[in-house]
Amino acid sequence: MTSQARAIIADDHPLFRSAMKQAIQAALGGEILEAANLEETLSTLAEHASVELVFLDLNMPGNQGLTGLTSLRNAYPGVQVLIVSAEEDPDIIRRALDFGASGYLPKSAPLECIAQAVEAVLDGEQWLPDGMQFEQGSGPATAERDFADKLSQLTPHQFKVLKMVADGLLNKQIAWELQVQETTIKQHVSAILRKLEVINRTQAGVLFKQFMQPDGR
């Protein structure tokens, strides 16, 4: 019988996952799955089409800056992602929302906030706890939102290629990693440059690191 899991808790701390799981099951019902890193989260999503919501820790293994969030949103645009993090920096929260997070739940927040967050997010609203609301339409965030909009136009394959370009891999190396022809990678890179409105792969990689991994993590 196919599992009807409704959510995934993606966090590398087993005790925190256990506490979250109890609270989420009370608020959401259905089976709640767990993942300890980004790769496991993506593979679990691939196996469970019923998942509606991912609770994502920003700092778990495989998740550099906002790359985990954008990987999930790019590959599974129909799945809502609620960030659960010890980070409470307003700039990080704003960037997470700009790049597609449906909400931001600090790990310091009371567990009863989970029910409020789940209800709001599944209703299609962005959720922040009381006292954390702020204006998103200001200053430097404009360039980030513009980049986020362009990034959303990439296919999942193009997004993978862009991450590898940002890591400094050549077309030949990317083709070997993805087990495809180098000409296919060249086509992906051309499409990426066009969609991001940049002139070369170096500029694409710099922008990706600037906005997705601003702290070099």
Query: Unreliable segments (pLDDT under 50, ≥5 consecutive)?
Result: none
Q: Give me the oligomer status.
A: single chain
Provide a count of the helices: 10
CATH topology annotation of the largest domain: Rossmann fold
Count of distinct structural domains? 2
The biggest beta sheet reads: 5 strands, parallel
Task: Explain what you see.
The protein has a five-stranded parallel β-sheet with strand order 2-1-3-4-5, with helices on both faces. The chain has helices at about 15-30, 40-45, 65-75, 90-100, 115-120, 140-150, 155-165, 170-180, 180-195, 200-210; strands at about 5-10, 30-35, 55, 80-85, 105. The chain is α/β, with parallel strands linked by helices. The chain contains ten helices and five strands; from the N terminus they run E-H-E-H-E-H-E-H-E-H-H-H-H-H-H. Strand 4, helix 4 and strand 5 form a beta-alpha-beta unit. Helix content is about 50%, strand content about 10%. Helix 3 packs antiparallel against helix 7 and helix 8 (about 170-180) packs across helix 9. The termini are far apart. This is DNA-binding response regulator. Keywords: DNA-binding, Phosphoprotein. InterPro entries: CheY-like_superfamily, EvgA-like, NreC/VraR/RcsB-like_REC, Sig_transdc_resp-reg_C-effctor, Sig_transdc_resp-reg_receiver, Tscrpt_reg_LuxR_C. It comes from Bowmanella pacifica.
